[in-house]
Amino acid sequence: METTQDFSSQKFPKQERLTSKKTIEELFSKGSSVFVYPFRLLYLPKPFGSSHLPSHPQVLFSVSKKHFKKAVDRNLIKRRMREAYRLNKRELLQAIPTHQLPASVALIYIAKEKIDFATLQKKLKTIWLRLVNNA
RNA sequence: AAAGCAAGCCGUCUUAUCGCUGCUCUGCUCCGGCAGAGGAGAGGAAAGUCCGGGCAACACAGAGCAUCGUACUUCCUAACGGGAAGGCAUUCUGGCAACGGAAUGACAGAUAGUGCCACAGAAAAUUACCGCCUUUGUAAUGAGUACUGAUUAAUGCAUAAUGACUACCUAAAAAUAUUCAUUUAUCAUUCUUUAUUAUUCAUUAUAAAAGUAAGGGUGAAAAGGUGCGGUAAGAGCGCACCGCCUGGCUGGCGACAGGCAGGGCAUAGGUAAACCUUACGAGUUGAAAGACCAAAUAGGCUGGCAUAGCAAUGGUUAGUGAUUAAUAAAUAAUGAGUAGUCAUUAAUGUUUCUUCAUUAGUCAUUGCUAAAGGGCUGCUCGCUCUUGGCCAGCGGGUAGGUUGAUGGAGUGCAGCUGUGAAGCUGUGCCUAGAUAAAUGAUAAGACCUUUUGCAAAAAAGGACAGAACCCGGCUUACAGGCUUGCUUUUUAU
RNA sequence: GGCCUCAUAGUUCAAUGGAUAGAAUAGAAGUUUCCUAAACUUUUGAUAUGGGUUCGAUUCCCGUUGAGGCUA
């Protein structure tokens, strides 16, 4: 496991995604949030004294069905968000010291219209910096 | 060639980099996975969830009722509210017509019953009302006839009066008769006008009775339609044609069509996407169903150890009592003896032993109970707080995982059967399988569309839309392109 | 994923299949007032949408769109 500490990897395997229903519920009920248009970011810090150190947070991307009725649009935005995170993962993770990394992060798309990939990337970086300052 | 309509088909492509999810192979592994290579990875509607089926769990003797759905016929199909072929109706259209063509149709039943049909209208379904017609009564008006009265005029083998003549008689006269005249009066007839009465006819009004359903401004809809006859007036009352109903016949598997005979038209208005009737069908719930594996945790269960209580049995220990036997010392008595001392006895004491009883403890076994301690009030009940252990096994089961779950009522081609939907045979082909949920992002190019532009080129954009167990349909959305057929127009030969 | 309900003026609601679709309130204009408020008068709907049944549809039936709810 320690060998996968390599930040240079642009991979985004399943361990780095948030899949557990329970932790999602916990995140949405207890997590603190940061808001930068067009995102809202929910995060949950690591449980105190947990022995095993995850090298990366578990991330979840979400788009509201109310704002985007069609599944095609939701899929497109989620894919763009995922790519933005994946391609900038190294930079983003190095910005935060390892012990301060949140355990789980939910990235929620708030805007009501589609945004192109470049600006999406920029906004993702700014909201991540806000998260760093808050933590 | 262009345009329109219809049917069918396709529905962006290529490369690079970085990724995502399965599959196969190889290697490594701490057996959880990891690495490398190869190859695969959204649709015609994947959508809506409107029908139907598979599959699964539960329910279920059978039948009926209720509820829901379907509704021209025959066929196709696993099934269907889908499809095919037909029938009928409506609309449009070609044609002089016969006869076609196209589109649409929730297209069973209103002659089983109930309900509703606003406004208008006589009336919305029983027929009633008005009206028409006939008869009768009454009234009025008009006409005719008759009677009566009045009136006017005319007429008269009428009457009377007067006069004359004649006859008779006579003195004369009167009277009588005849004839004539007169015109007065009366009467009669006719006519004019008028009145009354009666009657007849007509009209009107009114009342009653009978007939009738042709007509009655309306309305979406008015009790078969049109014509002729017929009638007091009318009426299928009769007849012709059309429509309707009934029953045979012929053709068709059938829906139905054709024709014949009869009924004379009624229990016949519309509405069943009003209730309803008839026939047929439907058990309920959905893959987040269901099946399996299974951490952690927990007053689940079982066993063992430990704990607390109660009861019984047995063992053991101790005490007490009784009993039996033994017994040293002390005490008492007796004897020997001055005494010490010695001996004997004692229903006395002590100790030990046997047996029995009882009490207490402890142990074991068995059975039962789980509680115990504290607080609130002294007790009971009640409430409340603390403790309620350790080990092993088992069961259910949470997180999680596996499965269900992707090759099938699949599809291209050919042949055969069938009008066709479709079926059968042969042969070839195909292969998404995610699970907070992959199938992408970026860059470059090609293709297409739009805008600007003479052009070159530039800019913007790439339809509708994303599998979630699977399949058959239906519905809805859709830029653009291709093929075929039909129609129209233009050009050329 | 599955199931159910609803849609009427700007807003909140009403309506038996029967016709100009009402009520309250808001908005606009006017009257009143020195001005405002209050009061009074007038005005504002393609009944979400497209079809069908019916003589006639807000109402009945079908399709589409949107909103809300239930289930796990």
Automatic annotation (TrEMBL):
Keywords annotated in UniProt: Endonuclease, Hydrolase, Nuclease, RNA-binding, tRNA processing
UniProt key word tRNA processing:
yes
Which E.C. number(s) belong to this protein? 3.1.26.5
Which PROSITE patterns does the record cross-reference, listed alphabetically? RIBONUCLEASE_P
What Gene3D superfamilies does the entry give? 3.30.230.10
Q: Report the domain of life of the source organism.
A: Bacteria
Pfam families documented for this protein? Ribonuclease_P (PF00825)
What is an example of a GO molecular function annotated in this UniProt entry?
Answer: ribonuclease P activity
- Enzymatic class: hydrolase
Q: Which reaction does it catalyse?
A: Endonucleolytic cleavage of RNA, removing 5'-extranucleotides from tRNA precursor
What InterPro entries does the record point to?
Ribosomal_Su5_D2-typ_SF, Ribsml_uS5_D2-typ_fold_subgr, RNase_P, RNase_P_CS
Q: NCBIfam families, per this entry?
A: rnpA (TIGR00188)
Describe the family membership recorded for this protein in Swiss-Prot or TrEMBL.
Belongs to the RnpA family.
Q: What does this protein do?
A: RNaseP catalyzes the removal of the 5'-leader sequence from pre-tRNA to produce the mature 5'-terminus. It can also cleave other RNA substrates such as 4.5S RNA. The protein component plays an auxiliary but essential role in vivo by binding to the 5'-leader sequence and broadening the substrate specificity of the ribozyme.
The UniProt subunit note reads as follows: Consists of a catalytic RNA component (M1 or rnpB) and a protein subunit.
Instruction: Please identify the protein, giving its name as recorded.
Output: Ribonuclease P protein component
